[in-house]
Amino acid sequence: MLSTQSLLKNTIVRGIPTSGMTLSSLKLATNYSTISKAMVCEKHGKPKDVLRLKELTIPKIKDDEVLVKFLAAPINPSDINQIEGVYPIKPRFKKYGAVGGNEGVAEVVAAGNKVKNLTVGDWVIPDTKAFGTWQTFAASPENELQKISKNISKISASTISVNPPTAYRMLKDFVNLKKGDVIIQNGANSAVGQAVIQIAKAWGIKTINVVRDRPNFDELADQLHKLGATLVIKEEDLRANSTRELVKNLGSPVRLGLNCVGGKSANGITRLLGHNASLVTYGGMSKQPLTFGTGPFIFKNLKACGFWNSRWNKEASKKDKQYMFDDLCELIRGGYLAEPWHDETKWELSDDNKTLNRKFMKALSKAGASFGNKKQILTFE
Amino acid sequence: MLSTQSLLKNTIVRGIPTSGMTLSSLKLATNYSTISKAMVCEKHGKPKDVLRLKELTIPKIKDDEVLVKFLAAPINPSDINQIEGVYPIKPRFKKYGAVGGNEGVAEVVAAGNKVKNLTVGDWVIPDTKAFGTWQTFAASPENELQKISKNISKISASTISVNPPTAYRMLKDFVNLKKGDVIIQNGANSAVGQAVIQIAKAWGIKTINVVRDRPNFDELADQLHKLGATLVIKEEDLRANSTRELVKNLGSPVRLGLNCVGGKSANGITRLLGHNASLVTYGGMSKQPLTFGTGPFIFKNLKACGFWNSRWNKEASKKDKQYMFDDLCELIRGGYLAEPWHDETKWELSDDNKTLNRKFMKALSKAGASFGNKKQILTFE
Fold it and tell me: What residues in B contact A298, CB-CB < 8 Å?
């Protein structure tokens, strides 16, 4: 973990080298503008075509603002869709363009006089849409940030605001699950899928995990079992009688299905659901529509719903969010929720802009690869 | 309405002509067996092949039983599916076979000594599955019957236990509708559809009604408007921009969709739903599966559920049922809920068995016709 001192070494305040600053002298930072290096787009388009590295001048912060220094930020598929303009949330275009990235963790390095709930040294994650996290510094009103525990790794903290809450809320808000209950999910090797397996395991819930067949299926299944998966099956086995038997042997009807694939996969999952179960859809990776038989809906009393973390985040109270993040941090600290499988791209202050751009584009292209297992995470050194 | 006296005229108690009996002498009936003429099947199959008229001897009723004389009973599509064996509810096969029919109204003509809540003269509807209503008499424990108001027509009473409750519950249990809210339904000319239009109208809710195109579309639309429909549109207009405009002009987002068709129709309805709306499926007349885009589920927060009146009926308390039936009878008496469009088949006691069989088979064949507008109802004279 980085100390405030080591952070200071990397802080650039225009005209004043911060290296060697003391904590008290940090307050000075509020009086100066700051340069942020940011991945910016001026219009919608393929991210590799429209994004480029820019140096942005952040004016001195206002009384109700904090200045934050980013520690880590992932490149998520929804970030890409957002830049393409095909996502319901649009980038925040300003004069200089829009900074990409919605998720990440930052440290507060300066706070205005009227800031109440944050202090220098706090770790924060965005609590608003289209924050712009692919940059080294940002100024923000404090209410657009959510304080987060510092007792977790910066990789965990930078990826805590989208995937783990998606898993957490889907396991909590649709069916009142009890210990020993069974759920099923497809896309089980996704970052959400990994979080589902681990949170379910921590809560005593059994998981049936569906993944696409692949050359290293056994290896993947092994990894998922290590995370706590009860069963791991292939998409094409969803309809097999042997699968029905396996599911039956779990001893409880399947009460909840989580779907990020759609098409045949969602339909196959529906067939394994028990009476009064819910199917929650949070993605559509196959780009196929959801297709269900009418009978199971009527006679098994199924429900199909959507879940979108951005909506939850917008509608939930600060208190509910704090409760959830505390709970998630607790799970992380307790060793129940590991960092997602990831590749780290180190964004070093000593890198020149061309190098940073090249590093970013490489990570971006991996993040855009269909069905990639590994999350791409920028870490700012 | 039939008086007890006129009922007595038609009651056959083995060996004792009841014509001219007084009310007090009815108690005698409990001491004798009764002959019921019934449409019975001995196995699953096409109803026209497996059903035949039989004379069944009903033994003298037990202390906790009542003897009822049927007044009217419809032939519903689900009755047909049940005899075919393709419905989750199976006929009650006994030694002599199973009597068809699940819905109808009967009058209590005799009550055992321990019967508490019913008395001679009460009107009752079945409160259990597979009761067998295509018969002239039946003996039943009182808890398998639900008392119903006598201040409605026997056509209304005989069709009150499936379609109106389906409409009533779907309008009540999924979305908290307020005056001025808008709902959409397909199959709007079905018996449920007609009930939806009328109950919604009574509650101040606007309805968009989708029907298949047909030569007499204008006439049908006119009939639905007379029932209280706000808009009537054709299936093929579901996706038209002009429809979007019409719906917009209703002034409120569409909060609830009711689907008994499936396939493209259900999908088209989903596209017109507003944020946080629910789509309730209670039938699948097109035999096409439900197909939805993933996006609307996630980003519009849609819900898709099934509704099955038989389940509600099984799970609801006697009190909740009584409340609903009282409410429905009130709507009927107030002139808000008309008899469903129907053809009446008079089952006269003076008819010989061959005639009764012929009359029944004619009604059955009309009831089985795809997308028939008119409910087929047997009335026992």
Answer: 281-284, 306-308
